[in-house]
Amino acid sequence: MSVPPRPRVPPPVIVLVTATAMAALDRWWPFAATVVPGRRALVAIAAAAGIGIIASAIRRFNEAQTTVNPLEPSKATVLVSGGIYRYTRNPMYLGLALLLVAWALWLGSASAWLGPLAFVVLIDRVQIAAEEAALGRLFGAEYGAYRDSVRRWFGRRA
What we know:
By secondary structure, the chain is mainly α. It has one domain. Helices cover 61% and strands 0% of the residues. The longest helix is centred in the last third of the chain and has 36 residues.
């Protein structure tokens, strides 16, 4: 099995670029306006959930005194598996994806939904793959057991 390349762009930068591209798509190629009842409430819920999930994840890392830097997963000192990490292996990315969902809802065009989709695919295939390879090397069977019990994006395995 080959080792995934180490990502060089911080995920928050990817989110900002994605959000900018979503706004551009909404402005210049607003493929079908989406009418969502209660849109403002859904925007607020998605954004608050995203921020809450990210804050919870960062708090867990800080409590464990390990790195939150996604570009250097090999510097992790502890495998964090409690709190929000019992339900998702990647709460920070889930939270960022929810922020992009809130932005897509706010923009209101179907073309804006390409952003969250592109973000999830890119992060899943590049960033998460590299992180998981590094964590597997660092924590071995402990990480394997965790990976087998908690889904990448959300949900415990039976």
